[in-house]
Each structure stands twice: as C-alpha cells, then as structure tokens.
Design brief:
Radius of gyration: 16 Å
Helix content: 10-25%
Number of strands: 11
Pfam family, one: 2OG-FeII_Oxy_4
GO cellular component, one term: cytoplasm
CATH superfamily: q2cbj1_9rhob like domain
Number of domains: 1
GO biological process, one term: regulation of translational termination
Cofactor: L-ascorbate
GO molecular function: iron ion binding; L-ascorbic acid binding; peptidyl-proline dioxygenase activity
Shape: globular
Distance between the termini: 25 Å
Length: 191
C-alpha cells in the first residue's frame, strides 16, 4: 500500500512537477515489481523513442496492480493531487509499464493526448545513477519556439514523479548509457 506520504510543495519551473519519495511500502513494492516482471513486453521503436512496453495495465486483474491502482486512485490521494496541482477534478487513471535498456530513449514531447491532466511515473529500478542515463529531463519552452533543458531528475527507486500535462510540459527520458534496465510504471490522470 501507499505509505502515508503527502505531496510537498509543487515546483513551478519549468512547469508544475513534484517528486514523492518512498511512495509504496516494501511489501507492496515487492509485489508490484514481481507482477511487472511476469508481464510480456513488446519492443517499440521509431525516430522519437525506443523502449519495451507492456500492454495497458488499467484493466488487468492482478492483486498487486489492483492495490496500486486503488492507492493512486483513492479519494484522499486524488484530493492531495488536485490540491497540489490546483486542478478541479481527476476522473479515470491509466497505466502501463516501460522498460528502457541500453540505447533506449524517449525524445521531448508534452503528453497532450486525449484528456490527460497529470502524468505520473513510479520508478522501480534500484541504484540508477546519473552515469546510467535514463533521467527525466524537463524543458523550458521559449517564445521563439526553441526549448532549453533546465532540470534532470534521476529516477530514485520507489519515487513517484508527477507533473501537470500542458502545452509547456516538454520532457524526455534520456538515453540509457549502461547495461541497466530502467523499469517504470507510468500513466496519467484524466479530467
């Protein structure tokens, strides 16, 4: 289950985002990792991305994933998210798992698809370091149409990164540079 954590102050630059460390208790964390290890992943590649993706996990009936969905969607946590990001409401939630291996990446994009309002990523790779790559990079958009990398977040094990999806929420997953697998459970809250 989710630990009794709260969202601290949301950072506003370059767009609203927050990192909630130590998100799940140890038992739930182990169960979620085991559940994800038992899934089938398909390799996807284009000029914009290279990674392994699971099927959509939103409707899969699995005890550990059910608990995680309940934790991310429970009333108190939704209230915490809506207050922190100053959004009026959150409706459905979706999720999938992604594995990035050496050479994999996801180039800058803004996540504006359908009615997404808040993006989240639960990081499940122990001991990921800056030298490994795989950082969540945040960009500041400029009026002239260019952008500038302003923040790199190294995914800490059992941390939940969240950000508001908007026309300025440009971000990427930097290339994995070593022989490590970056496992992330990612999804979106919708309006």
């Amino acid at each position: 289950m989710r630990k009794n954590n709260t969202i601290s102050a949301v950072e506003q630059s370059p767009f609203p985002h927050v990192v909630v460390e130590d998100f799940l208790d140890d038992d739930t964390l182990d169960l979620v990792i085991d559940a994800l290890a038992g899934l089938e992943y398909s390799f996807s590649e284009s000029d914009l991305f290279s990674y392994w993706a699971s099927v959509k996990l939103t409707d899969i009936d699995h005890p550990a994933l059910n608990v995680l969905r309940e934790d991310l969607g429970d009333r108190s946590w939704r209230k915490e998210v809506t207050q922190a990001f100053q959004v009026s409401k959150l409706s459905r939630i979706d999720m999938a798992a992604y594995v990035y291996g050496q050479g994999d990446f996801l180039l800058p994009h803004d996540d504006q698809v359908e009615d997404r309002i808040i993006a989240y990523s639960l990081h499940l790779t122990p001991d990921l370091e800056e030298l490994d790559g795989g950082s969540l990079d945040l960009f500041e958009g400029r009026k002239d149409g260019t952008s500038k990398l302003v923040k790199s977040i190294i995914p800490k094990f059992n941390s939940l990164n969240m950000f508001e999806v908007s026309e300025t929420s440009w971000h990427q997953v930097s290339e994995i540079l070593t022989d490590i697998q970056r496992l992330t459970l990612t999804g979106w809250y919708h309006v």
